[in-house]
Hints:
By secondary structure, the chain is α/β, with parallel strands linked by helices. The protein has helices spanning about 15-25, 35-45, 65-70, 90-95, 110-135, and strands at about 5-10, 30-35, 50-55, 80-85, 100-105. Helix 2 runs parallel beside helix 3 (about 65-70).
Amino acid sequence: MLSGRQVLLIEDNDRLAELYEAHLSDESAVVHRTSNGTKGLALANELEHAVILLDIQLPDIDGFEVLRRLKRAGNLSPIVVITSHGSVNWAVEAMRLGAYDFLVKPFDSQRLLVTVKNAIEHHELAEIVQSLTRPSTDWSLGLVGKFHA
């Protein structure tokens, strides 16, 4: 399911970023990795990603602020927040700001992959539902006939 999918990974811990990237690459995902929020925002605006993995504690911009900016800019990619300082308050705040899910480090590769796949699937299904429920602008609605006065 990840084959060829673009994943943006914003993580400042190089060892963890390499580990996450390896797990995602094993599933044939194309991973764009950066270690700070400023570059992450630029990459998010430059490319469309199937999912964004966002660490909360970044060296330049707080991850919550990155999340706010992404949502304000209209970025529709599902965002999974990751942090080693998990708390119920942080999880609630991430979800309130529009995150799809919240992972507390350390987590295993299976948890990462299931969360990423679920985020992508949920996003794609939501897009399908939205397209099916969007009002048609085609006033003919596919009807064919003659008008007799």
